[in-house]
User: Fold this.
Amino acid sequence: MVRVAPSLLSADFSRLADAVQSVEGSADLLHCDIMDGRFVPNITMGPLIVEAVRKTTELPLDVHMMIVEPDRYLSDFRQAGADMISVHWEACPHLERTIDQIHRLGALAGVALNPATPVQALVDILDELDYVLIMSVNPGFGGQTFWPRATIKIRQAAQMRKGRERPLIEVDGGINQETADPVRAAGADILVAGSYVFASANPAERVKILRGN
Assistant:
């Protein structure tokens, strides 16, 4: 069954603990978008926010690092409570070394791909990855419209891992009731959704809809 990771980027930061509790028991993990104002235009949370979230829940924390030089901060986010850490292919000139560092810290390691980056870019490192994060919007802002060609990339990633359980395929951007169906059908294992979940009066119910319950 597909897993759902509500993105805290769309939560009310003045009531972050309440937002986490609203999906406790329905979500499978929580997605934390880390932006530095350099790799993407926006600036969001750092290790202190991740640490605060860690204190409110036992759900796995999925940290998506949309930053340049992610190697400098891997240890900080792991110590803050990250269980999964993904870095962008476009930001890592020595990707294999970065993935190895994440594993040495004891976290699951993933690589995120911007819409214009082909899945084939991961062919030489696929065996080292726990998950692949396919961006179905250009990263940097919440509430964007799903990019339909992302389903092609999901199918390509599913074909590349054929016969193996890993890497899992995670999809982030524009996920809602309408887009979740083709994404699940294409082979996605984890759906990330922000505004669709947290803009609702009943976030837990939205999580169940995305899972296909």
